[in-house]
Design goal:
heterodimer; A: about 350 residues; Butyryl-CoA Dehydrogenase, subunit A, domain 3; 7-stranded mixed β-sheet; two-stranded antiparallel sheet; B: about 375 residues; alpha+beta; Butyryl-Coa Dehydrogenase, subunit A, domain 1; Butyryl-CoA Dehydrogenase, subunit A, domain 2; 4-stranded mixed β-sheet; 4-stranded antiparallel β-sheet; about 45% helix; globular; oxidoreductase (chain A); FAD (chain A)
């Protein structure tokens, strides 16, 4: 195991300890209701987690494979802070040589137009965490040139946006909005990167859904025995387990591909597999937990609402499947197996 | 605390294997024009001794086995490359499949020196075909309740009972069969032993069973006072159950658990290329492509864990469940996208789909049913 892998695992462990100490279901609900995240965020920053993926002089420059344990830990804890977004934002900004803003970063997955005076025009209906961030990073184009931009959120008029996960979010419409800074992209794609990150977070949260479902099946008694003794329940649990396993393997593959700069292939495979896994697992977990699982009293809803949000963000499983499928169809039948096996 | 019950450390096939892969592809290209869609649908249940001998001549049977026994001492990864190329092309590897995957490794692991010398070189030459005698008329998923008996006689064993669903017993040379050598069926997995049986032995009656494709791959085998020698015990007496289960971890995670229907995917894509604006088709093809990509990663990860001496039973069980589910979905996906007629004509696609539609129901039965896999997974997670 390389030194860097060790650092990645170490960062994940630290993050796990921090979230275990500071974030419980009640806290997640409070954050959904708008509780400021400054305290937790400062602690995350102090651990050096936010700059793990970033390069340059200030970043830790970890690979995606090394960062994966952190992303899965973040997912397991329901992502109480925009760490995933900041990781990608910081990584993209350092890659194009731009300065990093203070505090957490929000990411827009929309495509904006950039004019000759470095002003952007466009719309994004849902930007997670935007009300809690000082900076927004997004992608834009000026004719054929593609640029990364960063804009201070204090200058923007935000509209509150509601979503399944209830993460503080906003929509925004920009007309010739001056950017704080921008620079040409060299093939990077923050939408694909966010898709990989969301997939990794789904994989992490699925581990928790599985653990929680097993625990409930071994505790809840009906007909004089724990419900986990019934085959019908065992099969639901096995179904969640196999989805969880597939999601895990998918994000390991995706991070490895992303490290070889195959970002959109990585994103497609990861998002397709984890999106499907999220759908099936959420449904099966709710079936096992019965009515308590759909109440605010139980934490399952915090997890399943995030699964439903994350599977849809940065291109849904269906979006990426269509994109990948079109490429496969265009390449033709005889090329299909070599695309998989090389 | 973040924890997963599964481990899938990534394994990347080294670049050096690419030459071998190209070699296999070139070899297969010479044959594939002679296979009909119906043939290709058989995949690793296609039985063709001449083809197996040709594969053996290239050194692609018993690839990882010692040279002293006719093997080639190549890596498990090289074997994987050869095997996945064969399956992706739907090559008729059935005459050597069981021996190469299962019986050969078993004999090398627990067999006697005499058994190794007698059998392994013949398998590696593509000359000896093996079948596996497990299921019985009254013992399917509850395999340990089997009743066929091996009774100790002077200098050997006397076999009585019946085996069923034995693939290609009518074509094979040898069976490795699981028999009760002591105790009663109520004692389950205690007292079971594996035996090497020459299928030409007197007292053996083989009755083919026609399946719904109209062909007879399955057989029922009746043992009526079949005498075999002491030397035909495989491994330790009474260790049969443990030996069989060790084999199954390999059997459940190989490429044969997610590639059995694979040739239908490129065939369907070829039929679709006229209409690239079909969004449903793009989505379905993209999904299948992604899932097969990940199944391959899972299978390779298990392979590397096995070669490190680990026994990833749970990982193998989930991979088999996911893989056979994918295999079964493909003919339905093709139907959904092409809405093709039930005609089985002269063309590759209709034959392939026609065959697979009728054979896929067995994919989630063989090697342990889906329900048995779910039970293994649930138990592994601490349920029950």
């Amino acid at each position: 195991m390389s030194q860097e892998t060790h650092i990645g695992t170490l960062l994940a462990d630290q993050l796990d300890k921090l979230f275990t100490r500071q974030v419980d279901p009640a806290k997640l609900v409070a954050i959904e209701a708008g509780l400021p995240i400054i305290d937790i965020w400062s602690a995350v920053e102090q651990q050096g987690a936010a700059l793990a993926l970033a390069g340059g002089d200030i970043g830790a420059g970890l690979s995606w494979q090394e960062t994966l344990p952190m992303l899965r830990t973040l997912g397991w804890h329901g992502a109480p802070v925009p760490l995933a977004e900041t990781l990608i934002g910081a990584s993209a900004l350092t890659a194009v040589g731009l300065d990093l803003p203070e505090g957490p970063i929000a990411i827009s997955t929309a495509e904006f137009e950039l004019d000759d005076h470095n002003r952007i025009t466009g719309e994004d209906q849902l930007v997670a965490w935007l009300p809690q961030c000082n900076a927004l990073v997004g992608q834009s184009h000026r004719n054929t040139e593609r640029c990364l931009f960063v804009v201070a959120t204090g200058d923007l008029r935000l509209r509150q946006a509601d979503s399944l996960a209830r993460i503080p979010s906003a929509s925004l419409t920009l007309q010739h909005q001056p950017v704080t800074a921008c620079a040409a992209l060299q093939g990077q794609d923050i939408v694909a990167d966010l898709a990989i990150v969301r997939a990794a977070m789904i994989s992490g949260i699925l581990d928790r859904v599985l653990a929680l479902t097993v625990d409930y099946a071994n505790t809840r008694q009906q007909f004089g025995r724990t419900i986990g003794k019934f085959q019908a329940i065992q099969h639901h649990v096995a179904n969640i387990a196999m989805q969880t396993a597939q999601a895990q393997a998918a994000v390991i593959f995706a991070c490895q591909q992303r490290d070889c700069t195959n970002a959109s292939h990585a994103a497609a495979v990861a998002k397709i597999c984890t999106g499907g896994a999220a759908t099936v697992s959420a449904s099966a977990a709710h079936q096992v937990l019965g009515a308590i699982g759909i109440t605010q009293e139980h934490e399952l809803h915090l997890l399943t609402r995030r699964l439903w949000q994350w599977r849809a963000e940065a291109g849904s499983d269906h979006y990426w499947a269509e994109r990948l499928g079109r490429n496969v169809i265009n390449a033709g039948g005889p090329a299909l197996w070599p695309l998989i096996a090389g | 605390m973040n924890s997963s019950p599964f481990r899938f450390p990534p394994f990347v096939i080294p670049d050096q294997c690419q030459a071998l892969r190209e070699e296999v592809r070139a070899f297969l290209a010479d044959y594939s024009n002679t296979w009909s869609g119906w043939d290709v649908g058989h995949s690793w249940t296609g039985f063709d001794r001449a083809f197996s001998r040709a594969v053996a001549q290239r050194g692609w049977i018993g690839m990882t086995w010692p040279k002293a026994y006719g093997g080639h001492e190549r890596s498990v990864v090289e074997r994987y490359v050869v095997v996945e190329e064969m399956l992706a092309a739907g090559a008729p590897v059935g005459a050597h499949w069981v021996a190469d995957r299962q019986s050969g490794p078993l004999i090398l692991r627990v067999g006697t020196e005499a058994q190794r010398q007698k059998l392994i070189p013949k398998i590696a030459a593509g000359e000896s075909a093996f079948c596996i005698g497990l299921s019985e008329p009254d013992s399917g998923s509850d395999l340990a309740s089997l009743r066929s008996r091996a009774e100790k006689i002077d200098g050997g064993w006397r076999l009585n009972g019946r085996k069923i669903w034995t693939t290609y017993a009518n074509e094979c040379d040898f069976m490795i069969g699981l028999f009760r050598s002591s105790g009663s069926p109520e004692q389950k997995h205690k007292g079971l032993s594996q035996f090497l049986i020459d299928l030409q032995s007197s007292g053996i009656e083989i009755n083919p069973i026609q399946d719904m494709t109209g062909e007879s791959h399955f057989n029922e085998i009746v043992f009526d006072n079949v005498s075999i020698a002491d030397e035909d015990l495989v491994g330790e007496e009474g260790d049969g159950w443990a030996q069989v289960n060790a084999e199954l971890t390999f059997e459940r995670s190989g490429p044969d658990r997610y590639l059995s229907s694979f040739p239908l995917l490129p065939a369907t894509v070829s039929a679709l290329t006229d209409d690239t604006n079909d969004r449903l088709a793009a989505r379905k093809i993209g999904q299948a492509f992604a899932e097969i990509t990940v199944l391959r990663e899972m299978s390779l990860s298990i392979l590397s864990q096995l070669s490190e001496g680990k026994t990833p039973l749970q990982e193998a069980a989930v991979t088999k469940l996911l893989g056979t589910t994918m295999e079964q979905r493909l003919p339905e996906m093709t139907r959904e996208l092409l809405d093709n007629s039930p005609l089985i004509g002269d063309d590759h696609l209709s034959q392939l789909q026609g065959y697979l539609t009728q054979s896929v129901p067995s994919f989630s039965l063989r090697g342990g049913t889906n329900e048995i896999m779910c039970g293994i997974i649930a138990r592994g997670l601490g349920l029950r």
